[in-house]
Write a structure and sequence with these properties.
Elements: H1 12-21, H2 24-31, E1 40-45, H3 49-64, E2 69-75, H4 82-97, E3 103-107, H5 108-113, E4 115-117, E5 123-125, H6 127-138, H7 143-153, E6 158-168, H8 169-172, H9 175-183, E7 197-205, H10 214-226, E8 233-236, E9 240-242, E10 248-256, H11 261-271
Parallel strand pairs: 1-2, 2-3, 3-6, 7-8, 7-9
Antiparallel strand pairs: 4-5, 6-10, 7-10
Helix pairs in contact: 1-3, 3-4, 4-11
């Protein structure tokens, strides 16, 4: 720990040198047979010193071991103080400058306001939403490999997400209606019309295959986005099928290539005095 090393962990620049020198993480992973690790998911809230410095540092460490990684970065609330915004600004800029970064950015305010249900129909919000998205990621073995490959091919490092959580096909009537509902509660404040890259994970019960085959899902998604933005590439993976008896569908749409200027300009204004 940082406590033993007497490091001030308030700002990213105090923590980064220590993290760069640290070899403990990779050594402990090697003991757990790193060779079988084909992709890593890193999770971090980027408003504190440790979280903001850890993100680019861990991406580099995994890259050095030839391991693909996707990071989930939670951005601070609008009402958090300037130092939180300062750490966030630095973390995102460092990730953009780090080779092989694939980072999913989600807003704390949007996460806290998001209300969904799980597959049992129980209400979920806040951190439960994150765990739910994690769960969908983990259900797809090739997910990290596929999204990082797209990220490198199109040179897009920052993504955000729209989420469909356990939406009943009978209630919504169509996949398109589920997308319309997801758009009302995005997980980041961003301009969809500027997006250019899309990666979609769908989890659904096998009993819906006939009603909603993959080709139909792809067509619906393509048509839906065509009215909203000019996508360069849309990648809909083979759905994750469950043996549920329900008619509940989950989807996570990872969206990249959107205009980052509003996000950075906003952070810039908040951290101007600190810089």
């Amino acid at each position: 720990g940082f406590e033993d090393a007497n490091i001030d962990t308030h700002f990213w620049y105090n923590v980064l040198p220590a993290l760069s020198r640290d070899t403990l993480l990779m050594e402990s992973l090697k003991k757990k047979s790193i060779d079988n690790l084909n992709g890593a998911i890193i999770f971090s809230s980027v408003w504190d010193g440790v979280g903001s410095a850890a993100l680019p540092s861990l991406i580099e460490k995994f890259k050095a071991q030839n391991i693909d990684s996707i990071s989930i970065a939670i951005l601070p609330s609008k009402i958090q103080p300037a130092d939180a915004q300062f750490n966030t600004y630095a973390a995102l800029k460092m990730c953009l400058a780090t080779e092989n970064s694939t980072v999913l950015i989600l807003g704390r305010d949007q996460l806290e306001n998001f209300v969904g249900v799980d597959r049992r129909g129980v209400q979920i919000k806040g951190n439960d939403i994150l765990n739910y998205i994690f769960d969908i990621f983990l259900a797809k073995d090739s997910m990290v490999e596929e999204i990082t490959e797209l990220s490198r091919t199109f040179n897009i490092k920052l993504f955000t997400a729209l989420a469909v959580t356990a939406s009943s096909y009978k209630v919504y009537g169509s996949f398109e209606n589920m997308l319309n509902a997801a758009l009302l509660k995005p997980l980041l404040d961003f301009d969809l019309s500027t997006s250019s890259l899309l990666y979609v994970l769908v989890r659904m019960p096998t009993n819906l295959i006939d009603k909603l085959p993959r080709a139909k899902i792809e067509l619906t998604i393509t048509e839906w986005f065509k009215e909203k933005t000019n996508m360069q590439s849309i990648h809909v993976t083979e759905p994750i099928y469950t043996e549920d008896t329900s008619d509940r569908i989950d989807a996570v749409l990872l969206i990249g290539g959107f205009d980052l200027n509003p996000l950075f300009n906003d952070l810039d204004k908040k951290v101007e005095n600190m810089k």
